[in-house]
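Data availability excerpt. The first of two example chains:
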Amino acid sequence: MLNWLGSWFRRKVVDPLIQILRRGTEPKQLAFSAALGITIGVFPICGVTVFLCGIAIAVLGSICHAPTLMLANFIATPIELSLVFPFLRFGEIVTGGPQFALTSDALKKVLTGQASKEVFQSIFHALLGWLVAAPFIFGALYVLFVPCFTVLVHKFNSVPSSPKKPPNSPSEVRLKVRDV
C-alpha cells in the first residue's frame, strides 16, 4: 500500500513538478503561480477550485504559469477539506455571528436540498473567512516559494545558459557585402 502511494505521488506530483522546473520558467513566476494555485485551492466550496483556477489563468494570461497553478491546486485539495471548518469559524468571528453547529443533520439537509437559512449563512461565513485570509495565505506562500523555486529552477533547469561571446571571437564569422 505504501509503495503504491509513493508511486502515485511520484507520478502525479513529483514528475510534473520536475518537468515544469526543466522548462526554464522564471522562479518568481513559478512562486506566484504556486502561491495562487494553493490559495485558490483551499477555497471552502469543494469542486469549484478548478473553475476558479481556469478563470485566474484566463484573466492573468502570461503573468501566471498555468501548469504550476493547476498542480498547486491539485496538491491543495486535501488541505482544502481540512480548512473548511477553520474558515467557517473565522468568518463567524469576523461577522460576530452565532456559531453554526456542525451536525450530520445539517450535512443531510445540504445534500438533500433542504438547507435552512443557517446552512446558507454558514457557507457565507466560510467564504468570508477565506476571503479575509486569502491575501495573507497568498503573501506568505509567495515569500516562502520564491527562494525554494530559485534553488529548484537552478538545480533542474536543463537549458544551460550560454555565456556571451565577445563580438570578434574566433568562432564568429563576419561577412561583408558590397554593393556593385
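And the second chain:
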Amino acid sequence: MPNLLVHPARPDAAGRVHAITPQSAGWTYVGFEVYDLAPGASVTRPTGATEVCLVLVSGRARIVAGGQDLGVLGGRASPFEGSPSSVYVPPGAEWTATAEGACELAVCAAPAKGGKPVRVIGPDEVGQETRGKGTNTRYVRNILPDSSPHAESLLVVEVITPGGHWSSYPPHKHDVDDPPRETYLEETYYHRLARPGGFAVQRVYTDDRSLDETMAVGDRDVVLVPRGYHPVGAPHGFDLYYLNVMAGPVRQWKFTMAPEHAFLTF
C-alpha cells in the first residue's frame, strides 16, 4: 500500500510540488496536484479523460480554459482569508494559469465523460456552513458539494479547523459502495497551517484495524484516505486548513459513523 502521508517535493520545472495520481495512490478516481507559481510563471495542462477543479489556494492568476479567457481570478493572501475562486474544466479541454504575483494553485481531478461547461466558481458561490459544536466546531466552504450540478464526479471542499479543535470528527467512513446508506469515495486532504512550525494529527483506520495509521501532518502535507475513518486534530494555537477532494462511482457523500462515536454531534 502506498504511504498515506505525502510530503511536498521541491518544485519541478512547472512549479509542481504535489503530483498524486490514481496510479501513485493505488486507487481509481482521485488525482491531485499543487503548483507554486512565481510572478509571471505559467502552466498549461490538458484535462484528458478527467474533469478538473482549479482552486486558487492563494494569490491571483489569469485562467484560460477550454479556449475561454476567464480573466484574473483569486486574490486572498492565504487560504485562511475567506472563500476561494475556483474554475471547473471538463474532460477533453486545456487550461492555462498565469500567475500575477506568487500563486498557489491546486488541481483536483477525477474521471468524467464530458458535457459540463467551463465554469468560474466565484467566492460568492461557495456555500459556507458551521459544522459540529464545542471543540468539534469547524467551518466548511463548499466549492463543489454533491448538491452542485456543475461536476460529474468531483466533490471539493475547504475546511478551517481552529486550534484545539477536532475535524472530520466524530470519525466517519465512506468506503462501501452501498447508496444511499453509504457511498465509496476516495479522498485526499491537503493541509495548511496558519503558523509555521506546527503540526496536526490525522488517523486513518478501519474497524478491523487492518489499516491503522496515525500521522503527524506538517504544513503542505497531503494525506490519502483510501478507506476507513479519518479524523483530524489541530493542536491549540495552530489553526488548520485543509482542501478535500473526493470522487467515486456515485457522486454522493453518504457516510457511516464509527459506532462507538455515534452519540456525538457530527
